[in-house]
Write a structure and sequence with these properties.
The complex is a heterodimer of chains A (835) and B (232). Chain A has 835 residues and is an alpha+beta fold. Among the domains of chain A are: 153 residues, no CATH class; 137 residues, no CATH class. In chain A, 55% of the residues lie in helices and 17% in strands. In chain A, the strands form 2 sheets. A 6-stranded mixed beta barrel of chain A has the order 2-3-8-5-7-6. Chain A has a 6-stranded mixed β-barrel with strand order 12-14-19-16-18-17. In chain A, strand 17 and strand 18 form a beta hairpin. The longest helix of chain A is centred in the first third of the chain and has 54 residues. Chain A is elongated and about 100 Å long. In chain B, helix 3 packs parallel to helix 5 and helix 4 packs across helix 5. Chain B has a 6-stranded mixed sheet. Chain B has a 4-stranded antiparallel sheet with strand order 2-1-4-5, with helices on one face. Chain B is α/β, with parallel strands linked by helices. Chain B has 7 helices and 10 strands. Helix content of chain B is 32%, strand content 30%. Classes of the chains: A alpha+beta (835), B alpha/beta (232). Chain B: This is Putative ABC transport system ATP-binding protein. Chain B: It holds the Pfam family ABC_tran. Chain B: Belongs to the ABC transporter superfamily. Macrolide exporter (TC 3.A.1.122) family. Chain B: InterPro entries: AAA+_ATPase (IPR003593), ABC_transporter-like_ATP-bd (IPR003439), ABC_transporter-like_CS (IPR017871), ABC_transpr_LolD-like (IPR015854), MacB-like_ATP-bd (IPR017911), P-loop_NTPase (IPR027417). Chain B: Keywords: ATP-binding, Nucleotide-binding, Transport.
Chain lengths: 835, 232
């Protein structure tokens, strides 16, 4: 019976379920991709690190006793930030110089172009591998020269990727590999230089499954005290997995929202479908069918079509999956293989089937109560608001959403908040729709022209879809607009130097004897010295006489160890700069050598670490202990391009300490900036220059790439939203035909009927998009306030764009849909649809 | 008297897959203004198709319909709609009221489509003539079948049509209500001097018109005048 009844409605049933297809496609695509990625991370774990173990420290003489007992091969990498100079273009750039000795990587490769450059650059000559982005940026070709300090290297290859280097890291400080034996000749490593020393080990006699994690954990305290950072394969695997997990969670949410929109589509479609089927049910009941029998007929129909939709969705998702590695290519450290992920496919099909049935249940259960009288009397309400089963279905839906969100987010509280937010959004949209219908009825503009009145009246006609359309279009709009707002918010946070008077170039690592010369050089280019700041590096030894060692030994002390582990960069002055203000206490000067020294800390940092005014802080300034007290706390605007410091010493304290200097200036153009950089590097090879404009460009690049990923994923929501829109509009066609044809019969012109339809869709589209935008404003404000810790200033442009596009889209789809009705003779339609 | 409707060599063929199905074949007749005319025949004989073609609701495959001197075959859908709006009234078996509009608003629709102003008074007058003035603010769902048909009759007369097409106007009503509706149609028809073209399979009702065309298998079997008292 289910099949026989469905024969005449196949097209409509497929339309109902098409939303499921996209939702499931999104889910399967993302889950398959995640699955494959997880497998690849496992399979390529060794390649991720390139070695069995990586040790790193700021101290070249570090020592980890455990490894010395083993038989190993070793490679060394010393890395530091430095300017390099390209003689061909006479330009300079700050890069991450990596001097390499040994056969690293032991697993995987340093990916280069040409491929053999990875080994030929180690042939003992002065050859370098240069990050491909730098090569493109500066027009450097293979065989060109690159000057690192005093040594000129031949560019042997372009560096595409290497183990332990992520895309984001290369953008900020792109890498240049040089052979270790030339490091001293460059003259860049001197006393006080900030070099990071890495050692890569390959062990020859350890069993394959040796648990380094356990070993490292056992040696944790020793390693911390000696300031050795350890990376194991397992750890790298976890880190890579975690990085991806955040992305995966976001993607899963996008898929989930697409799926939810699909659910809305299913529920509304089945609702209208069942209204049309009530007569069939009544006839079946007249002939003795039980309510349950009729219910089963349609349940089977929905389930079968849901299953077909889900299978199609899973198939489409598997195809889409092949695109995802390209979309995420820049963010992934492993090569993702494409293979069928059966758990994702089966999971997707089961979810699709489950959703089809669950969301169809609410309109379906009404069938049980359909009276046989309908077949005789024609019209009867089948309202089932008092049916307790309906509430059970609603509860089931809520549990499903929370449960599914939990599966995706692995956090119950987040899942409940997310579900609540979705319900609030739906509730809001529902209320808006109801209120609008009530308002139109209440304040019906009787004096308006007929077409306006008819289009307004259609909004609350029997079987109207005002609520469904506003809810589905509104939610889609809200999601898309929120994505735009958040993206805009992130971008605006970095667009800080567009202001003409802001500094945009920073010269650092200047030794005291170099600073005057460099300042002179700046002046010769007419560049203002906006700030010239001395920086002293130091470590915190104790707070109120508690040392790091004591904290490690005594777990009852509630103080984080981070303040002791970090290398502090501190300046000294007696005045505030414009990016900071004192919140507590005051800046206190040191006038005589016997005065106590009162330092100032950043407010949040002091609070987080439980340091209060008057607390005693003892610093280790390159071997010399200095006792200070907390005299004030400051609030700092970190977004300003200034040299900002967590800790500030008064003048007359650190002047004799070894220090380097930073000079901040503003260059009027890229050309002047490039010339100035070139001269600085030529005359002072150990000094580094940061072109903030360049960094902002790269940050923009990263954001563009992220935005692309976000937009790509949002496409799923947009597509499902559109599909819901199309199917809702197509379904409402059956409601509209009768009116249009009647008006046509009574002499209504094409223009009049088109105007009535356009206006109706315009009301629906504009109200839905407006409500969606309102939701997005609220959502974005919430996200800005709670998640991004920033102020949300809505940009009116995306709002206008979204409003105009969604409204026009609704009208266009609606009109395209009515076109068929108008081109047919009224009699044909009257016979088909009415009689 | 002039002819308000002239049908000549009218044929309607539907293409159903590879097969062509002729539902009307070479139909010829004409109706004088003010006449009451009925088309009868069994189900599937082509009577509703003929009515639709005469009223310009569909296009003939060949032949011509001259309605109030205008050749419908030469007009496009919008032009035919304008003719309907100017000269034609309709009454359907299943009433066909707009569910979103009140009784009064439904009656006003044809005039509103013409862009007429100040029509409410006339619409109320029509409602009064069909005995439903007091129910003017009710929606179709709040009215019985007979009442809905009375509203649809008031609507049909609202644009002062020259010709009224009625498709089984009492087909969905009980005997008593049918009688009232028949009386109302004939009465308004007489008062307004409208031509009436009615499709019915009720021979008793057909006998009340001036002339009966009997269709069978898409051709005219018989075209005869009646001696109905209603014709006098």
């Amino acid at each position: 019976m289910a099949w026989r009844d469905a024969r005449k409605s196949k097209a409509r049933l497929f339309l109902f379920i098409s939303s499921i297809v996209i939702g499931i496609a999104a889910l399967v695509a993302i889950n398959s991709f995640s699955d494959n990625l997880k497998n690849d991370i496992n399979n390529q774990a060794k390649e991720l690190l390139g070695a069995d173990l990586e040790l790193g420290s700021n101290d070249s003489t570090f020592n980890y006793a455990f490894v010395d007992t083993l038989d190993y091969e070793i490679s060394y990498e010393n890395s530091f930030a430095s300017m390099v100079y390209f003689p061909k273009t006479q330009e300079s750039r700050l890069v991450d110089v990596r001097a390499l000795a040994g056969e690293f990587p032991y697993y995987g490769t340093i990916e280069t172009e040409p491929i053999e450059a990875e080994s030929t650059f180690r042939d003992g000559q002065a050859k370098a591998l240069v990050d491909q982005s730098v090569m493109i940026q500066y027009g450097i070709e293979l065989g060109d020269s690159i000057k690192v300090g005093q040594v000129t290297f031949k560019v042997e290859g372009s560096l595409i990727s290497s183990p332990s280097q992520s895309f984001a890291a290369t953008l900020v400080a792109p890498a240049v590999y040089i052979p270790m034996k030339y490091l001293n000749e460059t003259g860049l490593v001197q006393r006080g230089s900030r070099v990071y020393y890495r050692r890569f080990y390959k062990f020859n006699d350890l069993p394959e499954d040796f648990d380094f994690e356990a070993q490292v954990e056992a040696d944790e305290d020793t390693l911390r005290l000696s300031e050795i950072r350890v990376e194991t394969i397992e750890e790298r695997k976890e880190e890579t997995g975690e990085t991806f997990q955040n992305l995966a969670n976001f993607l899963n949410l996008v898929a989930f929202v697409a799926l939810l929109l699909g659910c809305v589509g299913v529920a509304s479609a089945v609702h209208i479908y069942m209204k049309e089927k009530v007569k069939t049910v009544a006839i079946l009941r007249c002939m003795g069918a039980k309510g349950r029998d009729a219910f089963q007929v349609f349940l089977i129909q929905i389930a079968v079509v849901g299953l077909i939709g889900s299978i199609l969705g899973a198939f489409a998702g598997t195809l889409i999956q092949s695109v995802l590695p390209k979309v995420f290519a820049d963010f992934l450290l492993v090569e993702v293989t494409l293979s069928l992920s059966w758990p994702s496919i089966i999971g997707g099909i089961v979810t699709g089937l489950f959703i089809s049935v669950l969301f169809a249940l609410s309109p379906l259960i009404a069938v049980r109560k359909a009276s046989p009288l309908i077949s005789i009397r024609g019209v009867e309400s089948t309202s089932n608001t008092r049916d307790p089963l309906r509430w059970l279905v609603y509860a089931g839906i809520a549990v499903f959403i929370i449960g599914f969100a939990f599966v995706q987010m692995k956090d119950l509280q987040d899942s409940i908040v997310f579900t609540f937010a979705i319900l609030v959004a739906f509730g809001f949209l529902g209320l808006v729709a109801k209120f609008f219908m009530w308002l139109v009825k209440k304040l019906f503009p009787s004096s308006w022209s007929y077409v306006w009145r008819q289009s307004l009246a259609n909004l609350y006609r029997p079987n109207n879809q005002t609520l469904v359309l506003i809810a589905s279009i509104g939610l889609g709009t809200a999601l898309i607009t929120t994505l735009y707002f958040i993206q805009g918010m992130l971008i605006s946070q970095v667009e800080i130097t567009t202001d003409e008077n802001r500094p945009n170039m920073m010269v650092f690592d200047m030794q005291t004897y170099q600073k005057d010369g460099i300042a002179e050089l700046a002046k010769s280019y007419d560049l203002p010295v906006l700030q010239e700041v001395p920086i002293v590096t130091m470590r915190l030894k104790s707070v109120n006489d508690t040392t790091y060692e004591q904290i490690l030994a005594d777990t009852t002390i509630e103080r984080r160890g981070g303040i002791f582990r970090r290398e502090w960069r501190v300046t000294y002055r007696d005045t505030l700069i414009e990016s900071e203000k004192v919140v507590q206490g005051e800046l206190r000067k040191v006038n005589t050598p016997n005065d106590s020294i009162f330092v100032s800390l950043e407010e949040d940092y002091a609070t987080r670490n439980n340091i209060a005014l008057g607390d005693k802080l003892v610093w280790d300034v390159q071997g010399v202990p200095i006792t200070t007290y907390l005299g004030s706390t400051r609030e700092i605007d970190w977004e300003r391009v200034q040299t900002n410091f967590l800790a500030l010493f008064p003048s007359n304290t650190l002047e004799p300490a070894p220090q380097f200097h930073v000079l901040i200036t503003r260059v009027p153009s890229t050309e002047v900036g490039a010339l100035f950089q070139r001269d600085v590097v030529k005359q002072y090879p150990s000094v580094s220059v940061i072109d903030i404009g360049l960094i902002l460009n790269t940050v923009d690049d990263i954001l563009d790439k992220i935005a692309f990923v976000i937009r790509f994923m949002a496409l799923f929501s947009i597509l499902t939203g559109l599909l819901v829109l199309v199917s809702s509009v197509i379904l409402s066609k059956f409601q509209r035909i009768k009116e249009s044809v009647l008006l046509r019969t009574m002499g209504g012109s094409k223009k009049q009927i088109l105007t009535i339809n356009s206006l109706e869709y315009f009301f629906l589209g504009s109200l839905a998009s407006l409500s969606g935008i309102l939701l997005a404003l609220a959502g974005s404000w919430g996200l800005a306030f709670y998640s991004f810790d920033s102020t949300f200033i809505p940009n009116p442009l995306p709002m206008v764009v979204v409003f105009v596009s969604i409204t026009s889209l609704t009208v266009v789809i609606g009109l395209l849909n009515s076109r068929g009705i108008l081109s047919k003779p009224p009699l044909e339609v009257l016979r088909n649809e009415i009689q | 008297m002039d002819h308000i409707l002239e049908v000549s060599q009218l044929t309607k063929t539907y293409n159903s897959g590879a097969r062509a199905l002729t539902v009307l074949s070479d139909i010829n007749f004409s109706i004088k203004a003010g006449d009451k005319f009925s088309i009868v025949g069994s189900s599937g004989s082509g009577k509703t198709t003929l009515l639709g073609l005469c009223a310009g609701l569909d296009r003939a495959s060949s032949g011509n319909v001259l309605l109030n001197g205008v050749s419908l075959s030469k007009l496009n859908e919008d032009e035919r709609a304008a003719v309907r709006n100017q000269h034609v009234g309709f009454v359907f078996q299943n009433f066909q009221l707009l569910p979103t509009l009140t009784a009064l608003e439904n009656v006003m629709v044809p005039m509103e489509l013409r862009g007429e102003k100040g029509i409410q008074k006339y619409a109320m007058e029509l409602l009064d003539r069909v005995g439903l003035a007091k129910r003017h603010d009710h929606y179709p769902t709040q009215l019985s079948g007979g009442e809905q048909q009375r509203i649809s009759i008031a609507r049909a007369f609202s644009n002062r049509p020259k010709i009224l097409f009625a498709d089984e106007p009492t087909g969905n009503l009980d005997e008593e209500t049918s009688q009232k509706i028949e009386d109302l149609i004939f009465q308004l028809n007489k008062e307004e001097g409208t031509t009436l073209v009615m499709v019915t399979h009720d021979m008793e009702l057909a006998a009340k018109t001036d002339r009966i065309v009997r269709l069978k298998g898409g051709v005219i079997l018989d075209d005869s005048l009646t001696n109905s008292p209603a014709t006098e």
